[in-house]
Amino acid sequence: MSTSPLIEIKDLRIRFHGDDGRITHAVDSVDLSVANGATLGLVGESGCGKSVTSLAIMGLLPKQTTEISGAIRFDGFDLLNTPDQTLRDLRGNRLAMIFQEPMTSLNPSFTIGDQIIETILRHRGGSRKGARDRTVELLRRVHIPSPERRIDEYPHKLSGGMRQRVMIAMALACDPRLLIADEPTTALDVTLQAQILELMRELKAASGAAIILITHDLGVVAEVCDEVAVMYAGEIVERAPVDELFSAPQHPYTVGLLGSIPRLDHRAEQLATIEGMVPNMAEPPAGCRFAARCPFVLEACTKAPPPLVEISPGHASRCIRAPLERLVS
Amino acid sequence: MALLEVNGLVKHFVAERSLFGRALAHVKAVDGVSFTLEAGKTLALVGESGCGKSTVSRLVLRLIEPDAGSVRFDGRDLLSLDADALRRFRREAQIIFQDPYASLNPRMTVGQILTEPLALHDLLPPAQRRERVAEILRLVGLEPRLERRYPHEFSGGQRQRIAIARALAVEPKLIICDEPVSALDVSIRSQILNLLRELQDRLGLAYIFVSHDLAVVKHIADKVAVMNLGQIVETAEADALFAAPRHPYSRALLSAIPVPKPRAKSSRIVLQGEIPSALNPPPGCRFHTRCPYVVDRCRSEMPQLVTDGIGHAAACHRTPELPSSEALVPSDGGFSPVLEKLVAAFGSGPEAARGGGVSSLRTDLT
């Protein structure tokens, strides 16, 4: 693992301008970095800004209505100030993404082979024959049975798990340095989920690519991530090595999330719940964005936005009451 | 006597017809399913997409007609009921669907949505219906003043509460919950699960809980039936099943649960191969194409569900010879001591301490 990160996000802010003139603060002062070969989990609930962050990395947000500031540095490029032409050369090549819904992310009117071959020819050139051979090889790598035959099939002939594997094969076509996986297993059954997670681990070991895994499933996070960033209402509220996040979370929101998932070993009569609702991001609250739902709230929390403070090496929390152990001892 | 007794239920859908309307191919969605459910208890149906769990739940309500088998509800044979009697039965058994965005009529207010079942079953004189609507809304943790709003004004979790309220309006004995929390965020999911539990304790409801999320099933179910390609392959008390699953399919399913504990010891069985099609299920045991323990007999002879002394049943020829499955289900080790205290404090913080029980589940609308 090299010391300088593969991708570094500094003070990323994203605002959407609505038709009615309202401005939604989708992402605020997000700092992230991922080293070569590492897996970062980006966790949070619908609307917290995790997918928007990943789309910003890929340069896929609509330009007319989006205001982005900050910096995203990837492999020597400043992604926010890169010409479209260069971005197109990076996407699908050194930067790849897998989406949640394999049904809608494949083109139904082309065979899966055509779609993967197109990616290879666009970025690598060479002969069609060579690209086809590589495609068969890729399909075999993601464990698609009889790939020589499957390569000429249309997406509708494949099951959900197979389609997701085709998406992964396509993402890997040009040996990406960074793979962004947005809820890659959410639409799948638990048995297929196990296959896909296994596959991602295998591929990471083989290629040394870095992965950003976006998910709301903390079980999946525990299984494949090295580091985790928890997002709430557009901000990172906690960042920690995976073990620490699960054993000693330092933000009340993370505590609430961990308490609200049913456990296998421990049959609680009541699960923890997080009362209230996410604040309206057109007018974010002045203080801590979680204050209105936080059981540990103090007067000071609602006055000024808390900074993200490192509590122990590599473990940071955006909570003025951290370390939280103090609250229960 | 059990509240619900299902025996030998079969449903084959026609997948393809000839030019003259003769059936050429059938999807064997449900093929000989039997189970019972006691009043006030929860039975979970689990299995992969397409295993027939949702079809079973619709057959139990007679929303679709079975090809064979019987359903007895509270002593009555459901399949012999005429239209009038069937409508009376619908008062006693209700259903909640997965997608709270699709299951509420966008052109009706919450008040209208909740009044409709009362009017259909002529439960209360019109003058008292409003009162009853307010009462049901409070029961599911919503404020009565919200009855004038339309579904689009609510979040996903609140909509699911409205769907639950609609099911409760007619005071049923059984509610079928078809993936009721799958579309919801984690923190909202726990609110709905708590609510379902609490309503069950308070009103003595029985649930059939259809889900593919096994940690949720472990949390809520008393009994579990594991389905594969239209058949139940294993059924047991939830604790017994999660302690030691017997059927190779249940073993694979339970061993694959991702647990919220980094570096958890895993003896995961990753199944190879694709799920066979229900159009053309394999002969013999329907799991044999993916089973790591397959022997010749499995390819030709269909195994029967065999029940032991404590009501744990599995349909596998090799049940007695399979290796022990005791350490198979991954362990999340519960919470660390610090987290345990934090979660407890989180639940009893100043905010949560204001209300108790259902009323504390109230979600604010701005």
UniProtKB/TrEMBL annotation, chain A:
- Sum up the protein's function in the record's words: Involved in beta-(1-->2)glucan export. Transmembrane domains (TMD) form a pore in the inner membrane and the ATP-binding domain (NBD) is responsible for energy generation.
Sorted alphabetically, which Pfam families does this protein's record hold?
A: ABC_tran (PF00005), oligo_HPY (PF08352)
Listed InterPro entries: AAA+_ATPase, ABC_Ni/Peptide_Import, ABC_transporter-like_ATP-bd, ABC_transporter-like_CS, Oligopep_ABC_C, P-loop_NTPase
Pinpoint the ABC transporter domain residues. 7-258
Name one molecular function that GO assigns to this entry.
Answer: ATP binding
Q: Would you tell me the protein name for this molecule?
A: ABC transporter ATP-binding protein
Q: Where in the cell is it found?
A: Cell inner membrane
The alphabetical list of record keywords is: ATP-binding, Cell membrane, Membrane, Nucleotide-binding, Transport
The topology of this chain with respect to the membrane is:
Peripheral membrane protein
Q: Which organism is it from?
A: Bradyrhizobium campsiandrae
Is the ATP-binding keyword given for this protein? yes
Q: Which family does it belong to?
A: Belongs to the ABC transporter superfamily.
What are the leading ranks of the lineage? Bacteria, Pseudomonadati, Pseudomonadota, Alphaproteobacteria, Hyphomicrobiales
Chief site of localization: membrane
Look up keyword Aminoacyl-tRNA synthetase and say if it applies.
no
TrEMBL record, chain B:
Keywords attached to this Swiss-Prot or TrEMBL record, sorted alphabetically, are: ATP-binding, Nucleotide-binding, Transport
What sequence ranges are listed for the domain ABC transporter?
4-254
Lineage, top-rank taxon, reads Bacteria
Compartment(s) where it occurs, according to its Swiss-Prot or TrEMBL record:
Cell inner membrane
Q: Gene3D superfamilies, per this entry? A: P-loop containing nucleotide triphosphate hydrolases
Classify the main location: membrane
Example GO molecular function term? ATP binding
Give yes or no: UniProt keyword Coiled coil.
no
The membrane topology noted for this protein in its Swiss-Prot or TrEMBL record is: Peripheral membrane protein
Q: Does the keyword Transport apply?
A: yes
Task: Please provide an example of a Pfam family that matches this protein in its UniProt record.
Answer: oligo_HPY
Query: Which InterPro entries did the record assign?
Result: AAA+_ATPase, ABC_transp_ATP-bind, ABC_transporter-like_ATP-bd, ABC_transporter-like_CS, Oligopep_ABC_C, P-loop_NTPase
- PANTHER family membership: D,D-DIPEPTIDE TRANSPORT ATP-BINDING PROTEIN DDPF-RELATED, TRANSPORT ATP-BINDING PROTEIN
What this chain does, per the record?
Involved in beta-(1-->2)glucan export. Transmembrane domains (TMD) form a pore in the inner membrane and the ATP-binding domain (NBD) is responsible for energy generation.
Q: Which family does it belong to?
A: Belongs to the ABC transporter superfamily.
Task: Please name the NCBIfam families in this protein's record.
Answer: oligo_HPY, PRK11308.1
**What is the protein named?**
Dipeptide ABC transporter ATP-binding protein
Species of provenance: Bradyrhizobium campsiandrae
